[in-house]
Amino acid sequence: MASKPAPTPKWLNAREMKAWRSYIIASRRLLEALDGDLEGHDLSMADYEVLAQLSDAPGRRLRMSELAEIAMVSKSRLSHRMTVMEKAGWVRREMCTEDRRGSFAVMTDAGWKAIVKAAPSHVESVRSRFLNHLSSKDQEEMGKIFDRLQTELRNQFVDESGRK
User: Fold this and answer.
1) What is the DSSP secondary structure assignment for residue 9, as one 8-state letter?
2) Considering only CA atoms, which of 110, 112, 94 is closest in space to residue 102?
3) How confident is the model over 43-74, as pLDDT tens digits?
């Protein structure tokens, strides 16, 4: 039985290619710059994101599975990040008493102090490297666009990971 030829991809046109490449280059450079700006606080962007999520959570704790889904990272990648952050004293893991297979990520006092110390310079970095280059209308439009993309990507992530 002969196999069917693969369908021809729908290649990007010039407008689509410009939008895509501009986004990729700018987002990578922005994340590298923001990451570099946190070096003085001994935090990476990944650390900051985990601490930010935990700082907003009730009791500064989230189930590891929920944190992985919010951050859109695999459980194994989050586990590795948590190991690094535990060594720094910023977080700890606690077993879930209701579900022995689950565990919580909990921000420690040292983690709270780290994010409180880093937050002012991080916010200034976000403003100077990103927000100050956008009009209010640009910010609103980007918010709508990326909310839509985030929702779709989160749904794809959940579908691909087998969770709902």
Assistant:
1) P
2) 94
3) 999 899 999 999 999 999 999 989 988 877 78
Compute CA distances 67 → 27, 31, 70, whole Å: 23, 20, 5
How far apart CA 143 and CA 164 sit, in angstroms, is 25
Query: Quick check: 62 and 105 in contact, CB under 8 A?
Result: yes
Domain ranges of the chain: 38-129, 134-164
CATH number of 38-129, picked from 3.40.50.300, 1.10.3720.10, 1.10.10.10, 3.40.640.10? 1.10.10.10
Q: Is the pLDDT of residue 96 over 70?
A: yes
DSSP string for residues in 11-40: ---HHHHHHHHHHHHHHHHHHHHHHHHHGG
Q: What is the largest CA-CA distance in the chain?
A: 65
Rounded-to-integer distance, Cα 65 and Cα 63, Å: 5
User: In angstroms, rounded to a whole number, what is the distance separating the alpha carbons of residues 29 and 17?
Assistant: 18
